[in-house]
Amino acid sequence: MKDLILSLNWHGTTDTSSLTGLVKTAYSKAVEFSFQPKLYFAQFAQMKRWDIDSKDPMPGNAVSFTIFNNLTVATGALSETGDPTAEGMGKTQRTVTLYEYGKLVTTSRKLRTLSFANIDLAVGRVVGDNMGKSVDLIARAAFDAHTGSSYISYASGTNATAVLATSTLSAAKVRYAKNRLSRNDVMKPDGRYYIAIIHPDVAHDLRAETGAGAWRQPKEYAEPEDIYNGEIGVFEGFRFIETTNAKVASNGASGSVDLYSTYFFGYQAVGYAEGIPPQMGMSGPFDALQRLMHIYWYALIGFGELRRESLFKVFSASSVGDNT
């Protein structure tokens, strides 16, 4: 009799299968976001802003950067009684054109009300990340536009098709890039080192070849604020900046081998003109029931080449890249 009662109680258990309507999937409000790189290329551009008060530079569709040429060296002795001949100054001008850039996300009131996630926070984060990456890739385009055989090199051969899967960036190529900048008397941005922007795949090969002991870690700098975004260390006269924003041309090398760009540069390689700085904002609602909300970023900016001799690029493959 006792065994019969226990059996009846067990078979009468109320569980999730008998009350399915009361069980719902739960969602966490802690929404995760895609990983995004920070500003890497843009942080090194020489900046000029519109300044209505000082009129420098004057408002317009483009901003001009003026570079004064050097005088000829004075190695001859002066006459004791005669005046030296005056030499006229020369200049070179580079123009950077301003363009509008931006991105918009529109949400409805119903979505903002019923969503389990904080939509306003999520949209702000996503739009902000998009602004950062977009501006940096706009800046990179100015670095990529730099051409000419005197300012580029390949890990093997003399063109992209000669770069094989085994043609990785070597320490010798880094030293060669240093020579190209030094022989042109290019100034160092911080007075001590040039800058190199490198993809993580290429950095993997370079550090594997040279050994970690050859690098000076950023923590050795006296002031933490002196560290650039993405800085991984110093090698052969360059402060290396690692970022996935460095260009990778799919199948750009021999066959199906990806082609990586590594950028070596000094002072004033690229100019940055700013009419309206990159900024986020909120607009609307403009519909009759005031349900729509717009989150956007907007900028009136431009990037362009300043000193051609200040930038040198090396194209290579990577052992951990897509080479098939």
Overall description:
- The chain has helices at residues 2-11, 109-114, 119-144, 171-182, 200-210; strands at 46-49, 62-68, 91-97, 99-108, 152-154, 194-198, 231-235, 238-242, 248-249, 259-265, 270-283, 292-305, 311-316.
- The protein is built from 5 helices and 13 strands.
- The protein has a domain at 154-267 and 308-316: hypothetical protein PF0899 fold (2-Layer Sandwich), CATH 3.30.2320.
- The strands form 3 sheets. Strands 5, 6, 7, 8, 9, 10 and 13 form a 7-stranded mixed sheet that branches.
- The protein is flat.
- The protein has 324 residues and is of the alpha+beta class.
- The protein is 20% helix and 27% strand.
- The protein starts with a helix and ends in an 8-residue tail after the last strand.
- The model is unreliable at 4-8 and 25-35 (pLDDT under 50).
The number of helices is: 5
What's the pLDDT, averaged over the residues? 83
Order of helices and strands: HEEEEHHEHEHEEEEEEE
Please write the CATH class name of one domain: Alpha Beta
List the helices and strands and how they pair.
Elements: H1 2-11, E1 46-49, E2 62-68, E3 91-97, E4 99-108, H2 109-114, H3 119-144, E5 152-154, H4 171-182, E6 194-198, H5 200-210, E7 231-235, E8 238-242, E9 248-249, E10 259-265, E11 270-283, E12 292-305, E13 311-316
Parallel strand pairs: 1-11, 5-13, 6-8
Antiparallel strand pairs: 2-3, 4-12, 6-10, 7-8, 9-10, 10-13, 11-12
Features:
alpha+beta, hypothetical protein PF0899 fold
